[in-house]
Write a structure and sequence with these properties.
By secondary structure, the protein is α+β, with helices and mostly antiparallel strands. It has helices at about 45-60, 60-65, 125-140, 145-150, 170-185, 195-200, 290-300, 305-345, 355-380, and strands at about 5-10, 15, 25, 35, 80-85, 90-95, 100, 105-110, 115-120, 160, 210, 220, 230-235, 240-250, 250-260, 265-275, 280, 285. It is about 35% helix and about 20% strand. The longest helix has about 40 residues, at about 305-345. It holds the Pfam family HNH_5.
Length: about 375
């Protein structure tokens, strides 16, 4: 009778059995990961790495996860992110790019010539009406009720905002290395063949097994209209190297050394997918072309290259990000406008419309969409 394979946790070395096994996402769930592996890390290590390493990685990519509306498998959207405008106004960025004030603003100023100037911004209609009720109590001689009837709620527009991005580091770097080992595990490469990377994850004082790589583009025919994550594995028995390439959102690009004494077969496999949908895509990564000098640069963490190379990655990725966001916002606006128009006209999903009702719906839908359309027009000028 054949013996069942014995698996060890890649992080602590404990034997993995049914009672302590866990499902580990190859790419962390928080940034859109879907594919999972078993018999890779134990449940306790999964929890610890998730709360520390993957959480730091998720934090570094929180802006992208929010603006691109990256959903978990359960359908839960990415958490909101606080951003700051160049005039120091703080707003929350919600999934899909929706913006919200972190708190209502209020200003009540006495004018030199007499009277008062009152201005405020609220996050919701309910909050605005609450502020107006407070003003009514404070200044009973004025009628604020008419203002409550004519409230117009618009999306917050921050103007120019600033965001700082940094990728990698100790904790997020360990998440990236874990992803590379998980990918190797998923294609049948045993853990002992990833000795260099496993040693790094198990020993906090070990030399980092990864390095940022921006010296040149390793993606063959890089897509110019799609956001993707990719994890690729290459085994080179001639030079005794087993290594990986991990790229997130087109910006963070890393080479991970899994072994410097590889003796297995020649291998090259990749897993790429769209994190906004989970759809897998075909993508070729040219890992075999990495030279010995480039490998040395990675091992010495000197392959990030110049500021110009980093900017080139941003100039590639950010237009795609914003085009995806615009498409999502347009789709959401149309869907919401249609739903609101149907409610206003008393229509039901799937209901057949006569010519008169169809015209009423078209007119109502246009009116509901007008704030969104005007916002788009203003942003173009």
């Amino acid at each position: 009778m054949d013996k069942l394979p014995v698996y060890q946790c890649a992080l602590c070395g404990e034997s993995i059995a049914m009672e302590n096994d866990s499902k580990e996402h190859i790419v962390p769930l928080a940034i859109g990961g879907r594919r999972k592996v078993r018999n890779f890390i134990c449940r306790d290590c999964n929890n610890r790495a998730g709360h520390q390493w993957d959480a730091e990685l998720a934090k570094q990519f929180s802006w992208f996860s929010a603006v691109l509306d990256i959903k978990r498998e359960s359908g839960t959207p990415a958490p909101k992110v606080k951003i700051t405008t160049i005039d120091q106004q703080e707003v929350y960025l919600h999934a899909g790019g929706r913006l919200e004030l972190t708190k209502p603003t209020f200003e009540d100023v006495a004018l030199p010539e007499g009277g008062r100037q009152i201005s405020f911004r609220a996050r919701t209609e309910r909050e605005a009406k609450r502020i107006l009720r407070g003003l009514q109590c404070k200044y009973p001689e004025h009628d604020f009720s008419s203002m409550a009837e004519g409230l117009v709620i618009e999306s917050t527009t921050p103007g120019v905002f600033k965001a700082e991005f940094s990728f990698g580091g100790e904790f997020a770097g360990r998440s990236i290395v874990k992803t590379a080992i998980a990918m190797a595990h998923s294609i049948g490469i045993p853990q002992w063949q990833c000795d260099y990377a496993v040693r790094y994850l198990r020993n906090e004082n070990a030399t980092p097994a990864f390095g940022e790589f921006l010296a040149r583009d390793l993606i063959v025919d890089r897509p110019d209209s799609k956001i993707f994550h990719v994890v690729a594995i290459a085994g080179d028995p001639v030079h005794k190297r087993l290594f990986a390439y991990v790229e997130y959102f087109g910006l963070a690009r890393f080479v991970v050394h899994l072994s410097l004494d590889y003796s297995g077969d020649s291998i090259q496999q990749s897993y790429a997918f769209d994190p906004t949908t989970g759809e897998e895509i075909e993508l070729q990564v040219d890992l075999i072309s990495l030279s010995e000098s480039e490998h040395s640069l990675v091992l010495n963490n000197e392959a990030a290259s110049s500021f110009e190379a980093r900017m080139a990655a941003f100039e590639y990725a950010m237009p795609i990000v914003f085009s995806v966001v615009r498409a999502k916002q347009n789709q959401q606006a149309i869907g919401q406008a249609l739903e609101d128009a149907c409610i206003e006209l008393g229509l039901h999903p799937g209901q057949e419309l006569d010519e008169k009702t169809a015209k009423q719906l078209a007119k109502c839908l246009t009116n509901k969409l007008m704030p969104h359309l005007l916002h788009r027009i203003r942003r173009r000028h």
